[in-house]
Structures are given as C-alpha cells and as structure tokens.
Amino acid sequence: MDHYAVTKVAAVQAAPVFLDRDATIEKMETLFAEAVSKGAELVVFPESFIPCFPLWCLVRAPIDQHPFFERLYQNAVQEDSPAWRRIAGIARKYHAWLSVGVTEKGSVSMGAMWNTNYIFSPDGEMAAKHRKIMPTWAEKLVHSFGDGSTLKVHDTDLGRIGVLICGENSNTLARYSLLAQGEQIHISTYPPCWPTRRVSDIPGGYPIEAVNHGRAAAHSFEGKVFTIAAAGVLDQEAISQVAEGDADLEEFLQHVARPSTMIVGPDGEYVTEPLRAEEGIIYAELDVNKEIALKGVQDIVGGYQRFDIFQLHVNQTPLMPAYFFAQENDIASDGGDSEPEGNQ
Fold it and tell me: Which structural domain, as residue segments, surrounds residue 42?
C-alpha cells in the first residue's frame, strides 16, 4: 500500500533589512535555523524578501524612483553569485527545504530584474526557480516579465510543489496549469502591503488580508491541495526610507492595510491560525494523503473535468533577448565551387 508524505512546514512573516541583501540573508538564516530547530522540513519566506519588496513603485512618482532602482539592482541576487551560494549553503547547513522570494538580476542587462522565488533542497541544490510571469500594476516599473519555462511543478520527497507569486494567485490559468501538473503543495508569497488608493474606507484601498485568504482558500479547495502563503512585514525603517521625509506619505504607510501569513488545507480551511501584522513563524503538519478522498469527490484535473470541451496550452519555452548562431562554410580548394555544408 502506498503512503504519501506527512511534512511539518513553517511559514515566516518578517521584514527584510530594507535594501540590504547581505544583512537580510543573515536575518533569514536566523529565522530559518529557528524554524528547523522546531522540526520544520520546509520553511517558506515572503515575496521579494531579499533585499525587499519595491514598495516605492506604488507610492512614488516614476521620476523619483531612480535611486531606489539603482540600490535594488546593486542588492539583487544573481544566480551562482556569492550571495546565491550563501543562500544555498544555508539550506545545506540546516538540511531542510528553503523557499525564499528574491529580486533576481540577470547576467546580461544592468537593469533587468525579476520577481523570483527560489526553492533549495536540503543538499543546497536549487530544486526550483519561478519568475513571476506578469509584474502587477506599478511593479512593471521595476520587474521584467517572466516566461512559461518556470511555470512548473517540482517533484520532491515532501510532495509535488508549485509556486505562484502574489497576483499570479488570481490568474486562473496559471493556477490551473500547476494543478494540471499534479501539484500537491502550493506556495504563494505576498508583499508587506499593497496600497492602491490614497482615500478609501480601507487604509490603502485594498483589503489584502481578506483577498489573500480568498486566493488561498480558492486554490486549495478547487485543487484539493495545501497552500502555504507567506507575507512580508512593513517595518518603520522601510517606511522612513520610502517616505524620505514626506510626513504625509509616512503617515499613509503607517496605517495602510497589512496582510497575514496562513496555511490552508485541501478543504479550504485554515490548518492553523494565521499570523497577522507582526513578525513570527507559524507551523503546520501537511498530510498529502488527505487530498485523496477530497479529489475523489471533485477533481478538476481528473474526473471532474471535460477535456473534450476545455483545453489549456502552456508555452514553457525559455525566452531570451536574442538567439545567436554561427554559420561556417567550408570553401573548397578548387575556388569555392562546392556547396556550403550549412550550420555547424
């Protein structure tokens, strides 16, 4: 008889050391070590935790954002860099799965950055990378578009894990594409706040805690999967740096609606009480076996779907700035009368 994984997981709600990559990695290690010491086999950190979520893109004019953009690029994480290897080394040191949101920079353009989530195995290997496929609203001033090559589910000894970042969890097709790959544990990550209006009955105009709960409950219930949703914390240092002495903006940010961190089961209910506003860690035991009976009732990627009516096509081709190739022609010694051999 087959049995499936039962895993203790942790979701971290914390503030980074604002725009300081190395100090934030140090803080992440402290929190990661704490969670592992309490038995967590998988620890999930928030969206863009390293070096911070680019809050300024939502509340400052584009013309005033250049210094923030430059600092973000200088503190972003590049794959296989010393900072990246340090993160991998933390997973290896404590021998547990590590999921963390970063601002990632590439090796070509000094300006291309992505909203990315890394998952490292207990051996320190990068088991998964997901780039947010569509930056949300003002995030387009900071982050580039991801592509379908990272819209994948990954087999692990904990179960099949997929990741979506913030607003992607409202993208029905993106969510379905993960479920259709056999997702069992869904990771979703969120920023410390998401203001959309200056004047509203809700501070910042966006009930982010309620919205995030709706997303998590919908995905878990529809897909019969567990969802781990980790959110950031907006601390006074981030508020002060973004406000830059603007008293009205500082006041606004101090009262803007905050998210919560939660873990939701395949029945759509909380597995444990969510964590609201303050820094902390919540824990839960995820028993993938509990998904089986629920899928027997309603399985939207199995017996409760009409594949003859509905079809989803997902392009997982990696996209590059340019595709380079070399054509070498062998010229015969008789003066070049022979045909070229084509691409080599």
Answer: 6-297
Q: Indicate whether 309 belongs to any domain.
A: no
Question: In angstroms, rounded to a whole number, what is the distance separating the alpha carbons of residues 242 and 341?
Answer: 60
With 0-12 / 13-18 / 19 or more C-beta atoms within 10 angstroms meaning exposed / middle / buried, residue 167 is buried
pTM to 2 decimal places: 0.94
Split into its structural domains, the chain has a count of 1
Say if 325 falls within a structural domain: no
Read off the CATH number of the domain in which 231 is found: 3.60.110.10
Provide the 10 A C-beta neighbour count for residue 183. 28
| Residue 326, domain member (yes or no) | no
Closest to 227 in 3D by CA, of 33, 25, 9: 9
Collect all residues with Cβ–Cβ distance below 8 Å to 306 and sequence separation of at least 6: none
In angstroms, what CA-CA distances link 187 with 11, 89, 90, 239, 290?
A: 10, 22, 20, 27, 18
Q: DSSP 3-state assignment of 115?
A: strand
- Alpha-carbon distances, residue 322 vs 41, 130, 132, 319 (angstroms): 40, 21, 21, 8
Contact 94, 28 (CB under 8 A): no
In this structure, is residue 338 part of a structural domain?
A: no
Question: Digits of tens for pLDDT over the chain (344 positions)?
Answer: 999 999 999 999 999 999 999 999 999 999 999 999 999 999 999 999 999 999 999 999 999 999 999 999 999 999 999 999 999 999 999 999 999 999 999 999 999 999 999 999 999 999 999 999 999 999 999 999 999 999 999 999 999 999 999 999 999 999 999 999 999 999 999 999 999 999 999 999 999 999 999 999 999 999 999 999 999 999 999 999 999 999 999 999 999 999 999 999 999 999 999 999 899 999 999 999 999 999 999 999 999 999 999 999 999 999 989 999 998 765 555 444 444 333 33
